[in-house]
Amino acid sequence: MSDTVSHFIRSMIETDRARGAHGGRVATRFPPEPNGYLHLGHAKSICLNFGMAHDFGGSCNLRFDDTNPSKEDIEYVNAIKDDVRWLGFEWANLLHASDYFEVFYLCGEKLIRQGQAYVCDLSADDVRAYRGTLTEPGRNSPFRDRDIDTNLELFRRMRAGEFEDGARTLRARIDMASPNINLRDPALYRIRKVRHQNTGDAWCIYPMYDYAHCISDAVEGITHSLCTLEFEDHRPLYDWCLDQLDIEHDLALTEPLRAKGLHMTPSRPRQTEFARGNLDYTVMSKRKLIALVQEGLVDGWNDPRMPTLSGARRRGFPSGAIRTFWERMGYSKQVATIEYSVLEGCVRDDLDSKASRRLAVLDPLPVTIANLPPDHCETLSFANHPKDPTKGTREVSFSPRLYIEREDFAEVPPKGFHRLVPGGEVRLRGVGIVRCDEVVKDSNGTVIELRVSLDASTRPGLPGAERKVKGTIHWVCAASAVPAEVRLYDRLFDVPNPDDDSDGKTYRDHLNPRSKIIVRGYLESSLRDVPIESRFQFERLGYFVADQFDHRMERLVFNRIVTLRDSYAKAEK
RNA sequence: UGGGGUGUCGCCAAGUUGGUAAGGCACGGGAUUUUGAUUCCCGCAUUCCUAGGUUCGAGUCCUAGCACCCCAGCCA
Fold this sequence. Notes:
Blueprint: H1 8-19, E1 27-30, H2 40-55, E2 59-64, H3 74-86, E3 94-96, H4 101-113, E4 117-120, H5 124-131, H6 148-160, E5 169-172, E6 187-191, E7 205-207, H7 209-220, E8 224-228, H8 235-245, H9 251-259, E9 270-274, E10 278-279, H10 286-294, H11 309-315, H12 319-329, E11 337-338, H13 340-354, E12 356-358, E13 360-361, E14 364-369, E15 378-383, E16 393-398, E17 401-405, E18 425-428, E19 432-441, E20 447-454, E21 472-473, E22 475-477, E23 482-489, E24 516-523, E25 535-538, E26 542-546, E27 557-563, H14 567-572
Parallel strand pairs: 1-2, 2-3, 8-9, 10-11, 12-25, 14-20, 18-21, 23-27
Antiparallel strand pairs: 4-5, 5-6, 6-7, 13-24, 14-17, 15-16, 17-22, 18-19, 19-20, 23-24, 25-26, 26-27
Helix pairs in contact: 2-12, 4-6, 4-9, 7-8, 12-13
The chain binds one RNA strand through helix 5, strand 6, helix 7, strand 11 and helix 13.
């Protein structure tokens, strides 16, 4: 499938298997919270979790971490499923943390019975005050020593809805003096009389992430729980919960699942953290992405400039390019930001071999071949790919009235210019060599037409075609070309780190005003009828995709995915 | 000032029980080319955050520093 690059997580799994841990089994999960759209950063985690499961013949679940109904919405779960599938992955099981609500409750009772959890009546503010600070220990809650029966009774009444939102919490009884704040009697359950998108009004107490996540992993038989660095100091709590609960051997805890027909073998999973994927020239935080959308700075979540997966898809990025992108970056524990050029490189790599070539002119300059009869018309055969004959050929009509790219003509050429100049020659791709005999201008001095003569001895197939000229340019037949809206996209921000506001400027001040430019171009007629999301290389211009939503046969709309590498433009700078 | 992490080429990132710095991207040069694309060669860290130390030998071990990231939600 892909080259297997070694990294610390792969090595760890190999070691575990060699040791015979989990019987050699590998089970992972991708656990998004359905409260937003997936972005490129999530893709790194998706590729890792599904990739490890795939490489070791294991399985990967898609699990919605829906433990906070006040923030989550069903709208996102479908979008997330689409994105994961589009990325090319298939989950073994589609699950929700809310599938385990009954298990979480039983676990809560078990902790209480073991004297390891208690119902606390402190308000949120009080809890904060009792927690202490980074350098000072916290103080015990006055409710910390309630007896087991009282706790059990109170917990049952919490579930029954007898108390107001926020009135009480179930807390783990660990150590208020721990240097790790996560261990200072963390809340396990809070009261929220909110309807849940999956369980409706069945519950009014909802579990906290740390508590629900480890139990969910164990219940599903996850072997390797892979997450990002910020959860590193939550790992002691992850382990604490699982060690107290011993879900593997206490079948009573998972009985409610079997009663529902959900048969899974519990495990004792281990959490491992890796650095999240950061990309330069973009922002990835949920908050900023929402702001971009809500403030109309972009055209929605799937704006082709957005780092969301739906945006990447609409932009035309092949999902395979995104997969190789994260593979190239690798997985480590160093906080790192990868360059945007790596992503572009992956996209070009993928598309170079797969995309058929086409001719298109985006900034037309009329050209007339004066030494051909005005009514001359012929059909040329072009290879769809310069080095892949299996991609076949297509017909391209040719007549004496053409459009070339305005940029491919220069009245006063800069040094090193290889294209058309007055009196100079250039090759028209697939046609032959033409000489510029006359430059026609309007009253303002703007060039409005070029009159050229074609050297008939240089037509393809003739010996004269071997003649070398410095440049070859693309063109389109004026009579048969089809007009199209072409959206030229570029990176959304014009600074590498838009998150950096140390100079008093925010990401809003760094939006690239040229990130979206809409032009009207002319395409060779074979592009008249292509399906949405089909990708092509417009020769010498870049890779383009028929827009997923706006492209229609009556109104062609193409998005520029990425330009071709351009060593000439680069050298000019 | 508490705890948890991380520091290897411009950006990522490998570096086995210490044995004398992989690879990718970017970049520079050259060759091929009817896309200034692709492809193909060649080059690109006497050096691994710093300073000491151990050793015949250290990116890898020890000591002391420095820098950066994360943590005080009844968010995930």
